[in-house]
Amino acid sequence: MKDQKRLNRKPNRVFKSKLIHCDYKDCDFKTQSDARLATHMKRHDNPKTEAYRQLRLDLNRRCYDSTTNTYSCGQSGCLKTFTNYNAVRDHMTYIHKSRDIVCDYADCNKVFKTKHLLRLHFNNMHKTDKPFKCPHNECGKEFAYRQRLDTHLVSHTTGRPFVCDFDGCAKSYKNRLSLTTHKRIHLSEPTIKCTVEGCYERFHAHKHMHKHRQTVHSIRPYKWRPPPGYKPTCLWPGCDFTSKTNYQLNVHQRTHTGEKPYACDWPECGHRFARRSHIKDHMNAHKNVKPYACHWPGCQHRCSHRSNVNIHYKQVHQK
């Protein structure tokens, strides 16, 4: 049996004593095996792999420093350096490349830098078949990728294990991404660049950048639009409620079931709410924050709940 296996064994590759060089232009590949050279030559016949090779040659020509064995960004005004090719390639693609790939979904027209980002956007925003569903019955959210579901499940927990270590801050968050986003406000220089071509403004938070895009560049934020004829209906007996989104339907159904999934994590509070916006206003009362102001001329009244502004307006200014 062993002799039969030895006979059926594939012959070993023959390695030559001298190196064989690829004769393709600007290619420095070399090997001792004819089989490896034949496999390598197939890459030159593939347009996709050839485009990657040309990109690598271009970045090596412009960015590589042989004395320090590092890569430096070739864009004017950018002084970043990198230790490997993959890092400088990602930097040039996601930071300096222009947005020229447009989403062709109706009324979207959002632009991206790579086809990969366009595919993620389409699956998350426009795809109706999302296989990963939140196991919490009162939630009902669906996702195209399991990673997005795992990130969402953190919102149903009450613990906040990620604490900011900046002196005097001590804010805590449910996930590491929120903590990383928060830490940007402690930096001396803003790091988030405006995504509009030709604008070099930088910000500490993405929400400030999006606000800048709306006020300065008049770019309206994308608003999800349901497909034509999409009207989810309430399945409660005797209720004919219809809505435009699944979220509105889930919030409405809580009026039938009495479910209140959003719990206040303030010590010894225990209040629960059916809407996320309600618990945000409730937390303002705990923190003594009053973000809602009366816009009546000369009125300085402020309150922590959005609904209290309307009550104040009717009781004081509409008499």
Summary of the model, kept short:
The protein contains eleven helices and 17 strands. The protein has helices at 2-8, 34-45, 47-63, 85-96, 115-126, 146-153, 176-183, 206-215, 246-257, 276-287, 306-317, and strands at 15-21, 30-33, 64-65, 70-72, 81-82, 101-102, 111-112, 132-133, 142-143, 162-163, 172-173, 192-193, 202-203, 262-263, 272-273, 292-293, 302-303.
Structural overview:
This protein folds into 3 domains: 17-96, no CATH class; 120-215, 2-Layer Sandwich (Double Stranded RNA Binding Domain); 261-317, Double Stranded RNA Binding Domain. The mean pLDDT is 82. The chain is built from 11 helices and 17 strands. The protein is α+β, with helices and mostly antiparallel strands. It has a 3-stranded antiparallel β-sheet with strand order 3-4-5. Strand 10 and strand 11 form a beta hairpin. The relative contact order is 0.04.
